[in-house]
Design a protein that fits this description.
Shape: globular
Helix content: 55-70%
Low-confidence stretches: 582-594
Structural class: mainly alpha
Mean pLDDT: 77
Number of strands: 6
């Protein structure tokens, strides 16, 4: 027979799953971040929303959750799964490369932000010194659960954000122990307990890393032999649970164990399979956590204190954004646009802020009213994180646009002009840069231009479809122009216009196929490269060699295909010379000549 407690847990789980099923597609339909939707759902079905009406309307208990504590376990599990998925995208080698960012910028950001916020609270908050700086450190923490899904870990923004967030997650345990030690009722054993936890934590992490190195390949090899996706999922969850329980057993946060589990699996050859199988749980895990955040909001308190709440949110966001952006910029780690974007992205408090607030309340450093006020500030900050990310992205884009004008002016004459900065244009510009050839690229997508400038490429925003848009690029003194757009009509039109205006300018154009290449040659292109030819030939070469055909006949066949293509283009384009379609020759082994 099912008990009342079990029925309540099943009902809560159904409410959470139903909310996810409604919020994710509804907000995706209107291109809105589901983060806001989950928090609003938590507010709606929580104890201060419809949950407060269950006494008058008993049927509401089937679609509401009585208290945030009822889904606290689900929320914690959500954060654990989220950190596990983040760990899958990393590796120990990459973490070692980021060590200066983690323990340099990360430590400075947390310490400086905490000191500034703590000093402000001490001056204006009527708090003790320990309470003020404890709150300052809590508010200086940023949300791993929201920031990394937005920014990722591989972009310039994501790399900087992840480094600081990783240090904050590592610093969470010492912060909690220090606050407990500052409690008026604390004993002298707190410092000894902190040291014990630290050395035990180091041993556990080392043990998990060594054990994972030897055991995980064998475990996943067995799952692979069975060819059963459920075994991969079960093995992955087992690794996560064991790692989280091991770190929690010695006083560390379970999210440290989850991140470590992801890192260990990322070092195996099975990480892509595990990542694909666990991907559906990532969004659901984040949704459960955000619903619990929304349930912590008290509508009556918000209505009574809204001016103070808005002032507190704005103050925290401004301080954290300025501190983070300044550290990244003046340390030379990031460009101005990237620093501004990371600053706003990291400006909100964190889910771990709620943990630190609960610790400070339990240690009697702050009152229950103060804790509730800053919990609401934290929840509001988490709600506006996607909006801050959008604003930061727009500001970064404008900064990069302004800084790009002087960058363009410094480019010497005799440069190559690359029109279009998609996959092909990016590769062309990268090779020009590696060989020290001056260039300038243009693209009509403002986000593409901003992202390219963050990577150090010389790219200008320009819509080449507008007459005269290329006149400011100094084409009259350019050594060549490369057309990489994927619009064949626009390529033909530009080729004809460029050839009429600049008779001696080399024009190299990307072509779709032989017909398009022939048309480009007729329009005046110096070289037109069919993009489908070489990829098809390389694929055919790989297939034939893997089937056991000797290399010599394969190469001869490929040369024949190229010759037929050259003749076809020459005939269709009525050319007097054969077009240059050839494969880059591989260097002979032992030779210095390419």
């Amino acid at each position: 027979m099912v008990s009342e407690t079990e029925t309540s847990l099943i009902g809560d789980a159904l409410v959470v799953l139903g909310a996810a099923g409604i919020v994710i597609p509804a907000f995706a339909r209107f291109r809105l971040p589901p983060v806001i939707g989950f928090i609003l759902v938590g507010l709606l079905v929580g104890p201060s929303g419809l949950g407060s009406l269950t006494g008058d309307y008993p049927w509401l208990q089937h679609v509401t959750i009585g208290s945030a504590e009822e889904i606290a376990l689900f929320a914690e599990l959500g954060i654990v799964l989220l950190l596990f998925s983040i760990g899958l995208e990393l590796s120990f080698r990459r973490l070692w490369q980021l060590r200066k960012l983690v323990f340099g910028i990360g430590a400075a950001e947390l310490a400086l932000g905490g000191i500034i916020l703590g000093t402000a609270l001490l001056l204006f908050g009527n708090l003790s010194t320990a309470a003020a700086y404890g709150l300052g450190i809590a508010l200086a923490l940023s949300s791993t659960a929201l920031v990394l899904p937005i920014a990722g870990t591989k972009s310039a923004v994501g790399k900087s954000a992840f480094s600081m967030l990783l240090f904050e997650d590592l610093a969470l345990v010492p912060i909690i122990f220090i606050l407990a030690a500052l409690s008026p009722t604390a004993s002298g054993d707190s410092a000894e307990l902190l040291l014990t936890t630290l050395w035990q934590g180091v041993l556990v992490v080392a043990g998990l890393a060594i054990g994972g190195w030897f055991l995980l390949p064998k475990i996943f090899a067995q799952a692979a032999r069975a060819k059963d996706p459920e075994l991969f999922l079960a093995a992955s969850l087992l690794v996560v649970i064991v790692a989280a329980l091991a770190t929690a057993a010695v006083g560390l946060s379970p999210i440290v164990g989850a991140l470590l589990a992801g890192l260990m699996i990322a070092e195996t050859e099975y990480h892509e399979e595990v990542e694909a199988i666990t991907a559906p749980f990532k969004g659901l895990a984040l949704g459960v956590f955000l619903i619990s955040v929304g349930m912590g909001l008290n509508i009556k308190t918000i209505a009574a204190l809204w001016p103070l709440l808005i002032g507190a949110v704005v103050g925290v966001v401004l301080v954290k954004a300025l501190v983070t952006a300044a550290l990244l910029r003046f340390s030379g780690v990031a460009r101005r646009g990237t620093a501004a974007e990371v600053g706003l992205l990291m400006a909100s408090p964190s889910e771990t802020t709620l943990i630190v607030l609960a610790t400070a309340l339990q240690a009697q450093l702050i009152s229950r009213g103060t804790a509730e006020f800053w919990q609401i500030v934290t929840a509001i900050g988490l709600t506006i994180t996607p909006l801050l990310a959008r604003v930061g992205h727009d500001i970064a884009r404008r900064i990069e646009m302004r800084s790009g004008e002087s960058q363009d002016e410094d480019t010497p004459e005799g440069r190559t002009v690359v029109v279009g900065f998609g996959r092909v244009g990016h590769t062309v510009a990268q090779l020009l840069r590696e060989h020290g050839r001056p260039y300038i690229a243009v693209d009509a997508d403002i986000d593409t231009v901003a992202a390219a400038r963050r990577e150090g490429f010389i790219v200008r925003f320009a819509d080449v479809a507008r007459p005269g848009s290329l006149d400011k690029l100094g084409i009259e003194s350019a050594h060549a122009i490369v057309l990489t757009m994927d619009d064949p009509v626009q390529q033909l039109r530009m080729t004809k216009a460029m050839r009429r205006k600049y008779p001696d300018l080399p024009i190299i154009s990307r072509a779709r196929d032989s017909d398009h290449a022939a048309a480009l040659y007729q329009a005046g292109a110096t070289d037109a490269v069919p993009e489908t030819l070489e990829s098809s030939l390389q694929l055919a070469e790989a297939v034939l060699i893997d089937l056991g055909v000797a290399m010599g006949p394969v190469i001869a066949s490929i040369h024949d295909v190229r010759a037929k293509m050259r003749h076809e283009i020459m005939t269709k384009g009525e050319l007097e010379r054969e077009p240059r379609i050839r494969r880059v020759r591989r260097p002979i082994e032992g030779s210095d000549r390419g």
